[in-house]
Amino acid sequence: MSTKQPVEAQPILGQRGKEIQAYGTLTRYPLGLSDEARAVSVAGLNQILADSISLRDMYKKHHWQVSGPTFYELHLLFDKHASVQTEIVDELAERVQTLGGIAIAMASDVAQLTRIESPPRGREEVPVQVSRLLEAHQHILIAARALARKAAELGDDGTADLVISEVVRANEAQVWFVSEHLVDTPLVRAR
Length: 191
Ligand SMILES: [Fe+2]
Prior knowledge:
The protein is mainly α and about 190 residues long. The protein has one domain (about 35-180): Ferritin (Up-down Bundle), CATH 1.20.1260.
């Protein structure tokens, strides 16, 4: 076996290069939308994207760390909600790219952008877990409705539609399912 012959099939490893698009800039696709509409939508979508990634991760944290008599049910519910949030995250990120923007992606960048209060690393009681989730949902819902209105006003109906049909509807439904766990109702004997 000769070691002198260069191996053409050798992958070129360890490469780095310059960015081809800086975060915060927009490439222009022929979408028939104004620069203002695209800029407003991309900024709003990235905010909701960062908050949705945080919420998704919080659902996973609680899925793993949940405790007590409702452990099994909440363990499953939290995971189901995390899966739905993962789909929403993908839709939001791809909408940002569709508009020529750059989707926020990495955990360290998300941590800087999100407005969701970060829970401690340790484990918390179920009512606290649930409260944190509901606050995060409310944050997203308020921002999503505002973005949908603004985007529609500027002619970006695609973003308005995505935000209402995917983000708002799913978050509202998840708020219902999670909120009911904070109703103080007797388990065995009626009052
Ligand atoms: Fe799991």
